[in-house]
Design brief:
Helix content: 25-40%
Shape: globular
Number of strands: 17
Bound molecules: iron/sulfur cluster
Pfam families: Fe_hyd_lg_C
InterPro entries: Cytosolic_Fe-S_CAF, Fe_hydrogenase, Fe_hydrogenase_lsu_C
Organism: Lactarius akahatsu
Strand order of the largest sheet: 8-16-15-14-13-17
Radius of gyration: 27 Å
Domain Iron hydrogenase large subunit C-terminal: 121-433
Distance between the termini: 18 Å
Biased composition (Polar residues): 481-502
Amino acid sequence: MTFSGALTLTDLNDYITPSQACIKPVQQSNAPQNDRAPGDAATVIQIDASGAYYEVGRSADSNGGSKKLQTAEISLNDCLACSGCITSAESVLITLQSHTEVLSVLAQNPSPGAPGHRVPVLSIAPQSLASLAAALPAPIPVARMLRRVRAFARRTLGFAHVFDTTFAREIALREHAREFFERKEGAPGAPLPMLASACPGWVCYAEKTHGEMLPFIAATKSPQQVMGTLVKEWLAAHYWDRRPDEIYHVAVMPCYDKKLEASRSDFYNDHYATRDVDCVITTGELLLLAQEHGVDLSLPVPGEDDAPIPISSTTPTLPDLLTPPGSSSGSYLHSLILAVARASQRPLTLESKAVRGNADYVEHTLRDASSGDTVFRGATCYGFRNLQNVVRRVGRAAGVQVGRGAAGRLAGGLRSSATREVMACPGGCVGGGGQLRAPERHSKTSADADGTPLWNTRAWTREVDRAYWGGPARPGPGSGDLSNKGNNKASCSPTLELSSGTESDDRVEALVARVFLDLSAPTGPQQEQEVGTGAGSGPGPESRALDEARRRGLFRTEYRAVESEVVGLGVKW
Ligand code: SF4
């Protein structure tokens, strides 16, 4: 089965195609009988016209009686062990999210101004740009790669607008901080520690296997989905004079999980029958598109080193490549550390420690500089093995039974004022499954001589990470606004000194304010309907309640345990 030009699944011997049904077995609990010949069955199963199953006795003392059999229950574990139906459902979704689908939609799109025309918009993750930039024979800065992708997408593919997703991430990070403080103040149903992440891989894992963990997962949308909101609800309505369904929004992301995330029902606008993100393609698929159109991303394009367009809050143009220090997977923890430090208004120190020397599990502790009291604890945690440990530790601290194992061997418990930045891929998003393979020059120098796929090695992930940061230094959590910049070694104690901000920060601040101001004003029938209910965006407590509800509707989501949804079995073909 082929998902895309870059991913193929093979050896699926339990794969259920969309035309087949999952067969529920019946339960037979009869004990062995002694009055029959060896090899004879004690009973036979009969099915009546309604499809009910009966167990009919064969032995002399059974008098030919029959017993209706119960249909056996299929547990979530049975489903996960099979995975055929889940795989087929996902494959159908992913087929609709491919680079061929993008080409097909663009080819059928009526001309601008003609009825039915949709404005094509492309947004690309910074990790995807880093992968494209690092894989070139002569690596280039991500800013230059963004210009080349923009030129290709506009001139060759016909996209009207091309953005990176970092401004959307900026809004997501602010909403995350807001959510953290709500939890800290005891918001109902929103406990601490908070598991913060932009990773649908991790969220799907929690939904399928650890439903009891869902309240701990931050409900703020990922940058991909915030970008969908900005494109369809903000830019389209307020600056392009378009409805959400008149936009075709394609996102370029570092992994396939993002396709499934875009397909979630939470991100479907029923009123306009459209998704926030219409199609997600991977970094590899974008490169494939370029190659199929004879475009070489290693060649310069005119103006690729020009100064960026200044940020303006009056004629909004999304700023390019806002890259806060922290991690190349979104800087979720770093942004919270800064938010906590700003809120505490006292000198703090930051300690960072890799747990057992594991660079994918690093704990960070903020302490009061004079008393030494712990103010905040957090950790960056990448890869499923480490995630499993985090889930168990959080479960233990919260009194939730999530299994036993390695967690019991990790020292220390979780304090309530804690946050984890959790990502499914080892090394984080720069090492996502949709990223480019290591070029030949890396395969020669890689330490993995045992046949491990080189595109997935730590050496190559580090290369992409370097490209993301634009140099060899990787600023760790707590850097940037700290007196001891860039220090993310196993253990450090820089003193936290917050910067006063730059002109660029002020402009970003003004643009964020513009987004919220615009989004609080009604623009279409859906919002006008809300105003018509008596809770408009005018002054008064009702309007403030609506603004808060609207803000949550725009920038947060909900997670559900898979048991209540029966993935795959509930899909209608
Ligand atoms: Fe995708 Fe991996 Fe990043 Fe998760 S960590 S969002 S699975 S690339």
